[in-house]
């Protein structure tokens, strides 16, 4: 087993090295001008705005040497400081940088994720990758179809929720009843928590929520936020449902005649152990969304009170909705699992 894992790891590393080499030399595949920076001379124009003179050559087109100027701001909110070795896309007139070429860095990040995933779950590696790929494909297809047909964003995310949970439960377990238990528990906990959250927003008329940071959204911002609440809650409840139902399955394998009360006690203990950590995960995800924008606002002279009152409300409500979904999924998983799974052991 260890030998197979080592061979698989070496094959994966070789594929990642080959992929990294490909993305380092794929400039000819882009229609936009690709420019590699070989020399940077920086001039300070103001305390907050800087101008750089970039010297290098094009990696596609005529591969000619080129020199241009680039302006960035101290905060780097909508601009970036460039360094020697960076590869960027240029405007068609070859006079300005449009954006940084990051496909190689993105591939490296994905490669590290795949390598860690294989090291810690080599037996289920193919299954885990299949779940990720199929969920991604389903999301893209549903989003593309809805955008072409002019459908509702919320409707698209509701449909994706059902498809995603169905695909996940299909790959996680081979037994039909366990698949059904995972599906019903996840969907039930997700939509119950989401419905309660929407009900609270309706009753309170969105009091206390600040939507200013969503001002750049081109679609109705409330629909976008509602959809994000649903998808965020779905991720948390899926994990909880799988954990609780796996515990119930293990108990029934050891004690086929275990009653509902016994299953409830065992599942409750597991739920109590994972409720705190999962809620903390949601809270830190909330902080990760807030911190970058908070630093940007504070650097531009906003007060602490104005900054955090503007940013924290949406993320905190999203975290609370996810926590509610976790809390509701635990008893729901026990109820569904004890009814569906006990039938196989009686």
TrEMBL record:
Coiled coil: none annotated. The chain crosses the membrane at residues 105-121, 128-147, 153-173, 180-204, 224-252, 273-297, 317-341. Keywords: Membrane, Transmembrane, Transmembrane helix. It holds the Pfam family YibE_F. The keyword Transmembrane helix applies. PANTHER family: MEMBRANE PROTEIN, MEMBRANE PROTEIN-RELATED. This is YibE/F family protein. The lineage of its organism: Bacteria, Bacillati, Bacillota, Bacilli, Lactobacillales.
